[in-house]
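INFO batch 0412 | record 1 of 1 | parsing
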Amino acid sequence: MNLVGKILTGIIALFSIVFMTLVMAVYATHQNWKKVAKEVETKLNEETTKNKALQDQLEKLKNDYAAERQQLLDAKKSADTEVDLVTKERDKLKAEHEDLEKQKSQAVTALATLSDRAKGLQAEVAALRDDVRKAEQDRDAKFSEVVKKTDELHGLANTLASLNRAKTTLTDELTRAMQVLNKFGLKPAPELYAGQPPHPVFGKVLANPGTGLIEISLGSDDGLAKGHRLEVYRISANESTYLGRVEIVSAVPERSVAKIIPEFQKGVIQKGDDVASQLQFSGVAAAK
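INFO prediction complete | emitting tokens
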């Protein structure tokens, strides 16, 4: 018997006791039984009505209890289902947790390995940075050297170009010089013309004091300098005579002093004789 049944039983027992008490009171007094019976009947009707109301309420409570009980059963069934699901989810999460713990342990081991590897790589990177720095320094030094060599090469190229231009100029000058030499019957041998003036000159003997020195009318203005050699000859109406060779010992702008070279002397040199850098007459050349 549940709680609602017990309550209803108590209520019925209570009303029974009350009714019996009323009956006994009526019986004991024997006064106005009709009125009393009517009052009792009225009270009984009231109590019956209350009892019916209570029964209806009890029935309603039973129905509510059954509905609540069914709801509780459904809720329990649903809760059991949810508990099963939660249990399965818990087991699944537990397995996942164990797997994650295993992965965590593996990750920690791998992290330690990677940390050691990272330290090794950092050392290698530091060494590589030093190598790169040295390589950059070597590159900069090589680049500077290349720039320097390039500048030197450009300088040499410019020098070579200048030398080539100078070579071309000298070649042209040599060609023209050879043409001049060929035109005047000269040979390209400087030693053959040692002591000769830079260009042909012609002058006169001004004096011969008989000391082995003579004075001539040619000087530094004519291009003469110490060491130059001249030929002395005499031209008359009937013949041309080679007299000898002299060497300049001193020169002033308009005149010079020359010494007679004994081994070339062919005659007495006198005032008025001709002096030239080279003989111009076949007759004189023959006399020489």
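INFO post-check: The first strand starts at residue 202 and ends at 207.
INFO record closed
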